[in-house]
Fold:
Amino acid sequence: MSVPPTSPLRPYYIPPSDYPFPDLDLSNPSSNGTTSSSSLLNTLGEEYGDYLEEPDMKELFTGLLNAGVVRYFSTMVSQPFEVAKMLMQVQHGSASVVPADAHEEKAENYDDEDETGSQTSDDSNPPYFSSSTHTPPDSSPLIPSTPLPPLPTDRTGYILTPATHPHAHHLPPQTGSLRSVISALWHLEGARGVLKGLNAQFVHSVAQDLLEAWVESALGGIAGVPDVGMVDIADAMSPVASLLTSLAACTVTALLLSPIDIAKTRLMTSSASTPPRSLLPALRQLPTTWHIPPPLLLPTLLHALLPRTISLTTPLFIRRRLGIDPILHPLSYSVLSFLGSSLELGVRLPLETILRRGQLWVAGAHATIVRRGRYAGVLGTTWIILREEDGVRGLWRGWKMGMVGLGVGYLGVLGSEDEVLEDEF
Structure:
């Protein structure tokens, strides 16, 4: 291979004997136009063609389509459980209500009371325009002969009028079991009832992943954090900067997607026959379509920041503070990670319950399939659930489903790690 002349910009440089670009004249840079550039690209393509593959748009589109289909069907599988959990969270006193038979008895008593009241009202009004106006002397025309029985109330003292009676909400109150809620929804509305808000849930989850990744990369570029989102925080060059960038991206994403989340909550808690049933019309009916309502700012921030902080700092604490490596000690690392995820679930569920009630309150008056619980801010709603409803259990509705999901996920992780260790050793 011939050795090219020395470049005038590097007069003391001696090129190696196996110089890979013999056609490039370094002594006259002005003469190296398009021909030299194309020759350089061709040479690079020949040398590194096995490592640099041109993207195939058809394969890229097919991969995105397959990923979208898999994501949609996985969302469909989990949607009945999400609907049941949300109904339990927004429902008033789900674990403290009386059985359905007792409600039916109360409803019958209420109807009898209405009839008694109407009859008494008719007897107490003298028939001025009738032919006979005789009144028995032993009874007063203004006071009923027998006192009215008390109206039915719930345990908090609210009178169960026809507008607030549990049967006016279609779905009877449940006792804290996801299976009972799903069964009641299936018998009441069929497949439409257990798959309510499926498209909204899919759009929100996909938009959350894409937008959070984009915001995280943008903030990492602005803050000068090169490896944010690419490696685990425990392996990052600056763990604190990566943690703050990820938390900021999570917060911004939650605030931007809050209207979609509110519309999704409304679709999942209303009857399957109540319009609207699609995402865009539900968004148009919200008081604020394109930004988060001010009353939901604090619960949204707490729901986005606190659980995410625990999930991101758990690997950092296990590896940096405890010195447990996932490769050398897979079982210990998985057990501690499971405990960290359980803590994250315990923090997330109360905040999620408060947020869902606040979203229904902001969405305005509409017919929900269950009797809605009261919302009075973060601390006020917590006090209402603890004192007027289920007590401590009311803040952690749906924890069984969460723990089952964590257990199945970590069993799969342990199985995959065992396979990797068997392959290596």
